Amino acid sequence: MPDHPGAADQCPAPTASTVSAGSAGSSGSAGSSVSSASSSEGQQWLSDDPAPNRRFLFFSVFVLASALLTAGLVSWWLPPQPRPQLLLIGLLLALGFLLAEQLAINVDVRSGVSWSITFCEIPMVIGLFVAPFEVVLAAHLVAGVGTLLVRRVQDRILYNAGAMVYEIVCAFVVMHWITTAHIGPAWAGALAGALVAPMSSTLLALVCVRVLGRRMRLNAAVRLVLRTLVLGLVNASTGVVGYQVVMHAEAGWPLLALALGGLSALYIAYSGLLREQRDLEALSEVSLMVARSGHQAAAKPSLGLTGPAEAAEVPDTDEWQVIADRIKDQLGAARVVLRLRFDPQLPLHTVVSGDDLPAEMHAVEATGSRADALLRLPGSHVRHFRRGDSIPEVRHALLRRGADEALVVPLRSASHLLGVVEAHDKLSRWRGFGQADNRLIGTLASHLATAMDNRRLLATLRHDAYHDPLTGLLNRPGFRRAAGEPLRQHPDSVVLRIDLDVLSTVSDALGYAWSDRMVVAAGRRLRDALGPEVALARLEGGQFAALLVDTDPEEAHAVAERLRAGLAAPYPVDRLTVEADSVVGYSTPRTDDGETSSLELDVDALLQRADVALRAARAGSDTVRAYLPTMGQIFLRRFQLVTQFRQALESGQVKVHYQPKVALPSRQVLGVEALVRWRHPEFGRLDPDEFVPAVEAAGLIDALTGFVMDQSLIRVRKWMDRGLRIAAAVNLSVRSLDDPAFPDRVAAALERHRVPPELLTLELTESGVMADPQRALPVLRRLHALGVVLAVDDFGTGYSSLAYLRQLPVDEVKIDKSFVLGMGTDLGDLAVVRSIVELGHSLGLTVVAEGVEDDAARDQLAAMGCDIAQGYLISRPLSESRLEAWLQARTTQARGLRDETVLTLLS
Questions:
Q1: What is the distance in angstroms between the CA of the first residue and the CA of the last residue of the chain?
Q2: Of 228, 248, 268, which residue constitutes the final position of a domain?
Q3: pLDDT in tens, 397-416
Q4: What is the arithmetic mean of pLDDT over 542-548?
Q5: pLDDT of residue 311
Q6: What 3-state class would DSSP assign to 707?
Q7: CA-based Rg of the chain, rounded to a whole angstrom?
Q8: What is the DSSP letter of 664?
Q9: Which residues, other chains included, contact 29 with Cβ-Cβ below 8 Å and sequence gap of 6+?
Q10: The whole model's pTM is what?
């Protein structure tokens, strides 16, 4: 019979009641310590079934009543056996049974069954030889029930008393039958009876397990019966041999003592091995339970909450209860208390297994002046306290707990207290906690502390993997993880993308610290506006994303406007207040392009659609835009253009057209401007304003510039071979001015095509130069040193050109065509053009007018002294073949001053 209940295998709920189904006198009896909670296979108690403890109570009453009735019948059936000194014999038998009970060895088996190994067959065999049925039964009951009362397992007394009665009944019935049948020697009946007794209690225990609704595999049950049979045979044989030696051998007592000593040594060694096995299993189970609890806590979906409500949540309370139950059963303690700290800033959480803990002892402090004496122990080793020999404050702490004895071990990580494990009062009070218990709880505590620390570290790592370190909100993977399942369950949802402006300006002016503070403040405003249940993430920079569950587009638009209003409130930044604008794009899983409808539940795809809507809103005048399928087609087309551009250069889809430039008023053709054209096989003719920005953003502008420059120099070289000195102008990108190696590539191209540098003009936009003049100036100076003509395109549209123009090593300025087109009807445009012409001449620059489309404009420019005209009045951009035809048809040839051919435009 076990002296403490075994824990249910992997039981997910705390044990409500346990039952020891073996009797006190059974050697190898199946002391089934059966949990009333659900089994490891997930078996649940049916709602219409009685509770497990009530079912066990009914079964126990039935077992005891039937056992007493059977005992009465057996007592009436067996012939009386008057023997002298029955009282003394009864007391000695009771003492023998009691001693056998105290030497019991408890072994846990699967499905929550505890198996007890005792020496009860030895006094039972002796009783079968020397005492009548009633005396043996009384001695067995006194020893067994008394042991249960001392160990405070009153809930199992009825069942175990019935099992004890059945053991004695079966033993005497079998012995009487074999004896009267004269089967075997005289001692065969006693041996068989002593062997049947533990078998009866074992079979009864298996029935009890079944009654409680627990499952036990057939092979485990068979192993249990076989072990009971083997150990019962060993103990019963020992008892028979001992009786025969004492009664018939000369000086048999010493031989019996030696035999019993050897058998006891074997059992003690076996008990040690079993104890070590149980301890290892307990260590493994506790570590796995904590690790599994950590995995479940870390895998719990989060919405990016950072408030104390989420941090204060104590995860997996049932798991910790099972761990406490397992430690209690392993130690044989009346009570085990786990005090756990899941966060350094939170109080200890208390889990109790066994006897109730006084209410005032659940919430105790571990630090400060009012800290409990057992919770402020230094180090992490085991302390063993007894109330009788402890210092006053420890004695007071034990009194408050209602405990006479306690094992206490703190759980510590490298930096702080993780908790405290307390074990109160050994159930076997006559021996108390021993060295094995100290080692076990110390090792358990060490494993528990390591597992808890690993659990906390794993939870921290997983939290960091799915959360933004700056704001504490979800990051992109975390948003993908938190929004995936809600999207599948609620297709009528909306994904928002919010982009906060001015962060780059704040970073450039005051540093990243202040922009980070703005991002944190913006995240708080979004969280307050959306509430704690909405999945909210910071993607990167000032970009946020949110999932609105069960929200239609109209409601999402209203929410987006409300969020923009909240984000627009001024932010305190370094003694300043900064107002930040924001743009919102949103998308829904359901899209309808007019002909077909689709359902997109992929989070990344919805984020991409919301980003497309956000870019469309930024490009337009709206600040909140919903995704439309046409937006995706525009960006898809742009993506196709970028990916196909290099192939287009190699296959001849990209061509260079030329627009002539003539001198005023001589009408001499001085040069051409090279303009790129792309005829796409699928999209047809593409406007440069569509594909050039995309190519530039993709980092392919150097390939485009190099292609146009090579084609232009080839054309110039052909003209030079015919005696014509016609220059070619090529437009530059801002990226070219950022490349220190660009002047070297220009020089190599001029040398490769054998073109003088003065016949190559490089046009750069005013805004491109002004974006970073200090970085562009070295490149411009090197180009100017090569002899290349530098021109400022679209002059007059910038905001600081007059301040920097005199510092730039340029040779030409090109008046933006918007001024030239409007100067015939707008006196302001006329004044701007005249001012630019005068400014350019005052600085010694050549002035070129773009957009000349009528004779009046040409005459006005000539009157102002403008040097060169370019526009539709002269010619549209022409392909190479058509340019040659134009030159032959619209110009006349003459010999120049340096013996070159001069082309003059016909009027």
A1: 124
A2: 248
A3: 899 888 889 999 998 877 67
A4: 91
A5: 40
A6: helix
A7: 48
A8: T
A9: 1, 22, 23, 115, 116, 118, 120, 163, 198, 201, 202, 205, 228
A10: 0.53
Statement to judge: residues 321 and 194 lie in one domain: no
Task: Retrieve residue 735's tokens.
Answer: 């990226």
pLDDT tens profile 326-360: 888 778 788 999 988 877 677 788 899 888 888 88
Kindly state the tokens that stand for 434.
């021993």
Residues in Cβ contact with 306 at an 8 Å cutoff, skipping those fewer than 6 apart = 472, 473
Give yes or no for residue 91 having a pLDDT over 80: yes
| Tokens coding 890 | 């619209």
Cis peptide before 681 (omega within 30 of 0): no
511-550: b (≥16 Cβ within 10 Å) or e? eeebbebbbbbbbebbbebbeeebbbbbbeebbbbbbbee
pLDDT, tens digit (0-9, with 9 covering 90-100), for 178-204: 888 888 887 888 888 888 888 888 888
Residue 548 φ/ψ region, left for φ over 0, alpha for ψ in the -120 to 50 degree band, beta for the rest: beta
Q: What is the pLDDT of residue 730?
A: 93
- Domain for residue 455, yes or no? yes
User: Which positions ≥6 away from 891 have C-beta within 8 Å?
Assistant: 669, 903, 904, 905, 906
The answer to the question of residue 9 being in a domain is no
Number of compact structural domains in the chain: 4
**Separation of alpha carbons 127 and 117, rounded Å:** 19
Q: Which two tokens mark 383?
A: 């302390």
CA 749 to chain centre: 56
Average pLDDT over residues 433-454: 83
* Residue 20 CB partners (closer than 8 Å, separation 6+): 1, 2, 5, 31, 32, 33, 114, 116, 148, 153, 156, 159, 160
Domain CATH number, residue 502: 3.30.70.270
**Strand residues in 172-325 grouped as ranges (E):** none
Closest CA to 497 of 565, 569, 582, 555: 582
440 and 560 assigned to the same domain: no
Written as one letter, the residue type at 623 is: T
DSSP 8-state secondary structure symbol assigned to residue 306: -
What crossing angle do the helices spanning 629-651 and 603-619 adopt, rounded to 10°?
80
What pLDDT, on the 0 to 100 scale, is given for residue 75?
83
Q: What is the pLDDT of residue 494?
A: 92
| Residue 290 banded pLDDT, cuts 50, 70, 90 | low
| pLDDT at residue 57 tops 50 | yes
CATH number for the domain that contains residue 138: 1.10.1760.20
**CATH number of the domain residue 664 falls in:** 3.20.20.450
Instruction: Look at 248 and 411; give whichever has higher pLDDT.
Output: 411
| CA pair distance 213, 353, nearest whole angstrom | 23
**Do residues 700 and 776 both lie within one domain?**
yes
pLDDT at position 115? 54
Place 387 in a pLDDT band, splitting at 50, 70 and 90: confident
* For residue 789, pLDDT beyond 90: yes
Domain of 414, CATH number, reads 3.30.450.40
Examine the domain organization and report whether 125 and 232 are in the same domain: yes
The answer on 616 and 596 residing in a single domain is: yes
pLDDT, tens digit, 9 for 90 and up, residues 491-512: 888 999 998 876 666 665 666 6
Give domain status of residue 637, yes or no: no
**Residue 885 covered by a domain:** yes
Contact indicator for 6, 285 with CB cutoff of 8 Å: no
Residues 191 and 338 in one domain: no
Q: Are residues 575 and 695 in the same domain?
A: no
Distance between CA atoms of residues 370 and 367, nearest Å: 7
> Do both 457 and 527 map to the same domain?
no
> Quick check: 761 pLDDT over 90?
yes
Q: Residue 593 is encoded by which pair of tokens?
A: 């392009």
* Final residue before a domain boundary, out of 627, 656, 671: 627
Rounded Cα–Cα distance for residues 708 and 680 (Å): 18
Residue 715's domain comprises 645-891
